[in-house]
Amino acid sequence: MILDKIIAEKRKELANKPYLNSFICELKKSDRDFKKAISKPGINLIAEIKKGSPSKSVIRKNFNLKEIAKVYDTNKVSAISVLTDEKFFQGKLEYLTKVRALTKKPLLRKDFIIDEYQIYEARHYGADAVLLIAAILTKGQIDRFIDIAKKYNMECLVEVHTSQELKNVLDTKAEIIGINNRNLDSLRIDLNTTLRLVNKVPRNKVIVSESGFETKEDIDSVKGKVNAVLIGTSLMRETDIGRKIDQFMTPMIKVCGITNASDCLASKDADIIGLNFYQKSARFVKKESAKKIIAKVPKNVLKAGVFVNSSVDEIVKTADYCDLDIIQLHGDEDNIFIRSIKSKLKKKVIKAVRVKTAKDIKKAEAYADADYLLFDTKVIGQYGGTGRVFNWNLLKNIHKPFFVSGGLTAQNVAKAVFMAQPYGVDVCSGVELKPGKKDSKKIKKVIEAVRQ
Questions:
Q1: DSSP structural state of residue 182
Q2: What is the pTM of this model?
């Protein structure tokens, strides 16, 4: 088992460590509050610096510590985890010192701590917190290590993977509980590990879900259940780490009603573009034109097709011809229709719900098979592009990922995000010069307002 090999190597390393007396008298208390940083309302991000791993070998070939630390030094990152194991994860203790000089974020030393020496060592190199793994420690060791850390104002993130490990840890002084979705023996990941264990953790504990987060949907699955997520691999393998953080920590941005290539290029920093195949819309685009527009879409931008009361066959043919990623149903389609679309296309489906009162929100429960809901302003005779807002307070307690639409502009989109806490925002008329023609400056301002 890989964990046994790692621990055996740690024991060898500890046998060759310098005497503790050589630096313990110089240790100063941490002045960065790790626990407070990851306990702010909402989901907090602990971004990890990790060059490699036993399962992935080298994760980031172009490993520039200074550049990574600079990207992580934003208000979207609450704390930074630094892998310091050399043999298996290609880390270094010196990384802690270097990163500390580049940011004011609290730092977590992530390693396999089996001896109190490593706690003192972590503080010596600049850590404000350390990871303790329940699978390799006794309850007595956990308590002793926590006591040592507290002397230097350091926190301990105590990690569990099973119900029994959690039960043991709850009998210790642990205040921050990490639930690792990765099995440290097999290295397999199961995000349901957090969902299985989180309800067994007392509310007075700070909870961190670790490993396996690839998409915003993954993070939304633990939203409201944990205080923070720790993400390493999926950030380290990205060319543009900052963009990936935006996708994780801010709502998706969909620019809808694209009718030409120039507007498509103006939306290159959005996450999704929408093309409207409803013939009565002022933003209608033929599938032949849509295919040409889509050829200009950057690879990291998804393409959504908007349909209103079209037949299943028509939607399937258009989606295949235009290579759409998402199907948006904006008419009177029911859940049976949604299920039929998904069985034929194997694509994500957004179902629009037109809203005026709370009764309209209730109707959304009927669309169980939709992947996302989209709440738009109800205007009789119109299917989107209304330019009008509705009461965003109506969107509290929506359990399915959803988009907010209807009259969003650079001036009000941040308020909509704050009030509704959506999975994404859908902008159309609010970024136009006229119906069907976008304003690149307005698009840029909306994106900045969402990702600020």
A1: B
A2: 0.85
Domains assigned to the chain: 2-247 (3.20.20.70), 251-451 (3.20.20.70)
Rounded to the nearest angstrom, the gap between the alpha carbon of residue 126 and the centroid of all alpha carbons in its chain is 27
Residues 389-412 pLDDT 10s: 999 999 988 888 999 999 999 999
8-state DSSP, 411: T
Contact 327, 302 (CB under 8 A): no
pLDDT at 299: 85
Here the tokens at position 236 are: 């380290």
| Strand 206-210 versus strand 228-231 pairing type | parallel
306: β partners: 276, 328
pLDDT attached to residue 65: 95
Helix, strand, coil distribution of the chain in percent, nearest 5: 40, 20, 40
Task: Measure the CA–CA gap between 192 and 222, rounded to whole angstroms.
Answer: 9
Catalytic positions: 256, 376
3-state secondary structure of 146: helix
| Alpha-carbon span 130 to 126, nearest angstrom | 11
Nearest to 347 by CA among 290, 302, 400: 302
What angle is formed at CA 266 by the lines to CA 261 and CA 269, rounded to 5 degrees?
A: 125
Q: Helix, strand or coil for residue 75?
A: coil
CB atoms within 10 A of CB 186: 11
pLDDT tens digits, 73-105: 998 999 999 999 999 999 999 999 999 999 999
